[in-house]
Amino acid sequence: MSGLPEDALSRRLHPLMGPLVWDLGHIAAYEDLWLVHRHGERPMLRPDLAATYDAFETPRSARQSITLLDAAGAVDFLAQVRSRTLAVLEERGPHPVLHEMVLRHELQHTETMLQAMRLGGLPVPTPSAVDGTGLELLDVPAGPAVIGASDEHFAYDNERPRHVREVPAYRIGRTPVTNASWLSFAEGGGYVRREWWSDEGWAWKEEYDIHGHAEAVTGRPDAPVCHISWFEAEAFARAHDARLPSEIEWENAVTRPEGPLLRGTGEVWEWTANRFSGYPGFVAAPYREYSEIFFGAGHHTLRGGSCATPPRVKSPTLRNWDHPDRRQLFAGVRLAAEA
C-alpha cells in the first residue's frame, strides 16, 4: 500500500467497499485489542477509536461518512501498535492461537484491500494459466473422507471439528473454468438463456443489467475466469449439464491419500454448492463474530484461495463465504457432476 497515492488510500474506491485507510486503522485496532490488551493485559492505545475500527460497529456503508485517521495517521497508528506488540511478545512470548489469528487477519485484509483496488481500477494480481479448459472432469470413487482441520496447527473455528464423511462417487473438474470457456458460454447465450438461471439469479442479472463478463474478454484465455458471482457460476454449470461441487467433494478431491487430484487450486476462490454453516459439533472460538453470526445468513462458501490470497493463509480446509451476488471476490468456478 506504500506505493499508492494518499487519495487512493483515503477515498472510497467503490460503493461496495470502504476506503483503504479504514482497513489500515482496523488492522491496527484489531492487533492492539487481541495482542496488547487481551494477551498483554495492557490498556488499549486508542480506546476512542475502538468503535470506529470495529467491522460490526462501523459497516462498510458508514466508513466514508465518519471521521477516520488520514493515511499518515493510520500508518503511525500501525507503527505504534506494532511496537507495543513486540514489547508484549518479548515479555510474555507468543500466544499459541492469538498471534497467528492476528497475523492472518492482517493478511486477509490485504486481499480485501486488493478487491477494493481492483474495483477502483488500480493494478491487482491476476490468475495464472492452467492446463485445461475447466470442462475436463475426473472420476472420484466413493468412500470415507476426513474433513476439517486437525488440532496440530492453527485453523479457524469453522474448519473444526475434524470428522469423517461418507462421500458417494462423483466427478469434478480437473482445473477451474478458464476465460476461453467462459467466453464460449457468454457467446452461446449464457446471459440470455433463462433456463440456465435460477429465479434469484435471473432477477439479480436483470436488476443490474448484467449481460457478460468484461474480464473474461480482457484476461488471458488459458487463465481461470475471475470475479464471477455464485449466480453466474451456477448458471455456467447448468449450461454444461453439471453443478457446483459441495464443500465435502472439493476438500475430498484435494486431500486424497494418493495426493491431490485437482490442478489450478489457489488461482481463484472456487464457489461451492453449500450455504455457510458450522460442522457438526462446531464451537465458536475465540469469538463468535468470526464465523457463527454468518451461519444461516444466505452466504455461500468458497474454497481454495486466490492469486490475491497470501500463501500463509491458503489451506485445503480454509473456508471463505460471501453473498451469491458478489463479484468483488477473486472468485471463479470448478464444475462437478454425478458419477
Describe the structure.
- The protein contains nine helices and nine strands.
- With 339 residues, it is an alpha+beta fold.
- It folds into two domains: 6-119, no CATH class; 137-338, paralog of FGE (formylglycine-generating enzyme) (Alpha-Beta Complex).
- The strands form three sheets. It has a four-stranded mixed beta sheet. The chain has a three-stranded antiparallel beta sheet with strand order 1-4-9, covered by helices on one side.
- Helix 2 runs parallel beside helix 3 (71-92) and helix 2 (20-39) packs antiparallel against helix 4.
- The longest helix has 22 residues, at 71-92.
- The termini are far apart.
Short account of what is shown:
This protein is α+β, with helices and mostly antiparallel strands and 339 residues long. It has helices at 6-10, 20-39, 71-92, 98-119, 179-187, 199-207, 214-218, 230-239, 247-254; strands at 137-140, 143-147, 163-167, 170-173, 269-275, 300-303, 319-322, 331-332, 336-338. The chain has two domains: 6-119, no CATH class; 137-338, Alpha-Beta Complex (paralog of FGE (formylglycine-generating enzyme)).
Write the layout of secondary structure elements.
Elements (H helix, E strand, L loop, with lengths): L5 H5 L9 H20 L31 H22 L5 H22 L17 E4 L2 E5 L15 E5 L2 E4 L5 H9 L11 H9 L6 H5 L11 H10 L7 H8 L14 E7 L24 E4 L15 E4 L8 E2 L3 E3 L1
Parallel strand pairs: 5-8
Antiparallel strand pairs: 1-4, 2-3, 4-9, 5-6, 6-7
